[in-house]
Amino acid sequence: MRGEVITIGNELLSGLVRDTNAPFIAERLFSLGIETHQITTVGDDESQIVDSLKAALSRADLVVVTGGLGPTPDDITSKAVAKAMGLRLVLSPEALAQIEAKFKKRGIKLGPGAERQALIPAGSEIITNPVGTAPGCHILQDEKHVFVLPGVPQEMEVMMDQGVLTIIAEGTKRESFVAKKVLKVFGLTESQVYERIKGISYDGDKIKVGFLPVFPENHVTITAGSTESMERAVELVEGVEKKMRAELGDRIFGEDEETLDMVVSGMLITGGLTVAVSESCTGGLLSKRLTDVPGSSAYFKTGIVSYSNEAKSSLIGVDPHLISTKGAVSSDAAEAMALGVKRSAKTDIGVSITGIAGPSGGTEEKPVGTVFIGMAYDDNRGAGRIGSEIVVSQGYRFTGDRGRIRLISSEMALEWLRRYLLGEKVSGVGERWSRWIVSGTGNDG
Amino acid sequence: MRGEVITIGNELLSGLVRDTNAPFIAERLFSLGIETHQITTVGDDESQIVDSLKAALSRADLVVVTGGLGPTPDDITSKAVAKAMGLRLVLSPEALAQIEAKFKKRGIKLGPGAERQALIPAGSEIITNPVGTAPGCHILQDEKHVFVLPGVPQEMEVMMDQGVLTIIAEGTKRESFVAKKVLKVFGLTESQVYERIKGISYDGDKIKVGFLPVFPENHVTITAGSTESMERAVELVEGVEKKMRAELGDRIFGEDEETLDMVVSGMLITGGLTVAVSESCTGGLLSKRLTDVPGSSAYFKTGIVSYSNEAKSSLIGVDPHLISTKGAVSSDAAEAMALGVKRSAKTDIGVSITGIAGPSGGTEEKPVGTVFIGMAYDDNRGAGRIGSEIVVSQGYRFTGDRGRIRLISSEMALEWLRRYLLGEKVSGVGERWSRWIVSGTGNDG
C-alpha cells in the first residue's frame, strides 16, 4: 500500500517554519506498514492543491492532506480537495454541531468562519477534532483513501492517532508488513562501511538497505516488507542485520533510537563504574553528553572545563612545568588531566580532551583540529595488578569547523569509554596509543 | 521567478529524519526574491526523481535538488537528473581532482565510490564542496536552472551560500529586492510578543511580519520587497524594526544570525570581564554555550560540572552543612556555587545553575523543573564599595522534558549575564532576587 502526504501552507514555503507534520504522518503510517513514497508541500493556492492531489492519487492508494482548514478565506483546502476529486462541497450538520459546541464551551460567538469550516466534500466521513475547531474528513473513492486534517500540529497529531489510524486499521485489510532497523557506526567513513558490507546478498525486492551520514556517525538502515506477517518482515531484517553485524562488528555502537551517549551511559550503569571528565576545547560538551541521559548521576561525578592553564593546575593538579614544556595541547597534558580528574573526583575512570577547535590558535606543528584524548583507569582487571593506574592518550587531527571539531572530539572520547567498557584496554580506537603506567607492577600488555 | 525544491532520501520519507534542507533552501532563495512554490520529497528511486524533476521543470524557472550524491550505489541523483533532462552522465576531471584532494588530505585511500561521485550531467558546471567529498553541479537548460547539491546539511548549506546564491545573483538580473531582519526575544511568550507589537502599522503589500517560536526563544521576522532598490527594501524593514524595538526594548537580545551565546560573549570581551561557571543539572551545557564562540578563552576560565555533592564541596568549597540543611537544589546552594567558583577561578563573575532536570528526582516541594540560578560579582561599580562581592540567586520552575529544562536553564543563566552586562544589577530577570552581600559595606541599592 503506497502512501503520500501533502502539506499545505504558505509559511512552509517561506523557510521560516519547518514542516513537522509530514514526518509525523509518515512515521505513523509506517507503524501500520504503509510506506510514504512522496511528500509534497504547496501554498494556499487552489490550483496547486488540486494538481498535487490529482498527481498523488494517480500514484498512491492513500493520501493524507494537512493544512488550510482554518476559518479565514485563505483556507481553501476543502474546496480544492472536493474539486480534485469531482465532488460537491456540502454543509455537514455533524461538523457544524461539533464546531458550535466548541465555540459554546469557549464562550465565543459563532462567526461566519464557523460555517465555512463545516463545509466538506460530499460523501465524506467526519474526523472529530478534540483540540481545535476545524474537523477533518475521510473520503473513500475508487478504493483510494484521502484524509484531510488541519495543519496545527497539536490538532493534527491527535486526529491522526485517534481518527486516521483507527479508520485505516479497521477499513483496510493490511496486506503488507514492514520492519525496519537502523545500525549506527562510528569510526568508519561512509565508503568504508559500504566496502565492508557490499558483498552481503539479500532479496532486493523485499529488502532495502540505505546509508545515512549523520556527522560524525554513519547510519545503515535495513527495511523489509512482507505480505505474510510482521514476524516474517522482522525475520527478513534480522537476516541482513546478522550479516552486517558480522562485517561491521563492534564498529556498530547502537541501533534505532539509541545514541552513543545512551549506549555509554547504559554500560557505565551496568558496570557500576563512575567517571569524571576534564575537557578544554570541547568546553563542556563531553560532560553535557554524558549527562543528557536520565539517571546519569549514578556514574557521572565531576566535569571540569579547564579552559585556562591555571584551572588545569589548580583544579586537577596538572604540573605547570609540564604545560610550559610540553604544551597544554599535548599527549602529556591529556594524560595528566585524565589522571588528575580521576583522582580528585575519586572515580573509576577519568577522561580528558585537550585540543585546538579553532578557528584561531593553530600552529604549524599543531594546526586547528589537533586534539588529544586521554583516559585513566584502575588496572584491576588482571591478576596482581591491584592498585595500579593506567593512563593512555592519543592525538588526532580532525577537520571541519569549530562546531564539528568539538562534536567529533566528544564523540571520540565517548567511543574510548565504550571500547574500554567493552573490555578493550588500550587498542582499537586510534592508530597508536601512548601508554603510561603510573604505579603498579605490570604493563597492560 | 518561480522556484521549487526537491529533497531526496528514503530517510526523509520514514519520518525518522526531519527535512531541514528544504526550509533552508527556501529561505535563501527568498533572500534573492525567489519564492518557492513547491517542495517535493521523494525516495532514492530513479523513476521518482526523474518524474518529480520533470514536473518541477514544467512549473518552475529554478529547481534546487538535494540528496543522493554519496559514494554508494543507492546514491542515484546525478544519474536521474541527467535522465530527466536528456543529458549523458560524464566523468568530470575537475570533480575527480577535488575528490582526490579531499581523500589525500584525510589520508584515506581512494575507493571506487570516488569515481561515482565525479559523474555529472554533461555540460554542467561544478559547485565545489568545501566540507565533504561530493561536489554539486549547476545545469542551465532552456533558460531554466537546476542546482544539484548533497543532502548532508553542513555541506549543502555552505554550497548554497557560497555557490548557488552567487551563480543566481550573477546569472539572473534580479528585478526585485528583498531585505529581511530577524529580531530574537527571550523572556516573553509568543502571545506577549504579539500583544506588544500588534498595534504597529505597516504597508502589508510590501512588508511581511512573521512569528517563529524557537524554544526557548521567540523570533520575529520582518521581510520587505521593493522593485526599486535594495536600499529601499532595507529602509522599509528598518522602519518597522524601529517601531518593534520601541515596544520590545531590551527583550530583544539579538538579530539575524546572532545567538544569545554570541551576544553574551561579545559583551564579555568588550567589557574585559572574565567568567567561571558551576553547574549541576545542565551538566556542562552552560559552559559549552559560553565556549561555542571562537575566542572564548579571553573570558571563560573554568567550568565545574559539580554533579555530586562531594564535587560541590571539594572543588568549589560549598559547605557540606549547607547542602545537608538547605539541599543541593536551593537558593543557598546556587549562591555558594557561584561565589565559590568565582573565587577559585579568580574571575570577575561566577554563574551557577543547580536544579532537577528530571525525569526523576523531583519531590512535592521541589518538583522536576525546579532550578536555581546564582551569580556572584564584584560590587565595584558604586563609590566606596571596592572589595565587596554581591551574590544573587533566583528559583524557577520550568516545564518540559529533560532536554527542554536543561536548555531553558542555560538560556536563563546567559540572560542573567546579559542583563548584568547591560548594567542591571539585581533586577529584571526574575520576579524576585534574593541578595546576599558577602563582604563590604553597602548593599547594592
Give a verbal description of the structure.
Two copies of one chain form a homodimer. By secondary structure, chain A is α/β, with parallel strands linked by helices. Chain A folds into three domains: 2-171, Molybdenum Cofactor Biosythetic Enzyme, Chain A, CATH 3.40.980; 177-255, Alpha-Beta Plaits; 260-437, CinA-like (Maf protein), CATH 3.90.950.20. Chain A is 38% helix and 26% strand. A six-stranded mixed beta sheet of chain A has the order 2-1-3-8-7-6, sandwiched between helices. In chain A, helix 3 (46-59) packs across helix 4. The longest helix of chain A has 20 residues, at 402-421. The radius of gyration of chain A is 29 Å and the shape is elongated. At the A-B interface, helix 1, helix 2, strand 2, helix 3 and helix 8 of A face helix 1, helix 2, strand 2, helix 3 and helix 11 of B.
Which spans of chain A of ≥5 residues are poorly predicted at pLDDT below 50?
A: 382-386, 426-445
How much of the polypeptide of chain A forms β-strand, as a percent range? 25-35%
Specify the overall morphology of chain A: elongated
Q: So what's the CATH class of the largest domain in chain A?
A: Alpha Beta
| SS content category of chain A | alpha/beta
Number of contiguous helices of chain A: 15
Percent helix of chain A, as a range, is 25-40%
Number of separate structural domains of chain A = 3
CATH level-4 homologous superfamily of the largest domain in chain A: CinA-like
Spatial strand arrangement across the major sheet of chain A: 2-1-3-8-7-6
Q: What is the residue-mean pLDDT of chain A, rounded to a whole number?
A: 86
How does CATH name the architecture of the largest domain in chain A? Alpha-Beta Complex
Distance between the termini of chain A: 58 Å
List the quaternary state of the chains: homodimer
Main sheet specs of chain A: 6 strands, mixed
Chain pair sharing the greatest interface: A-B, 89 and 90 residues
| Rg estimate of chain A, integer Å | 29 Å
Per CATH, what is the topology of the largest domain in chain A?
Maf protein
Number of strands of chain A: 18
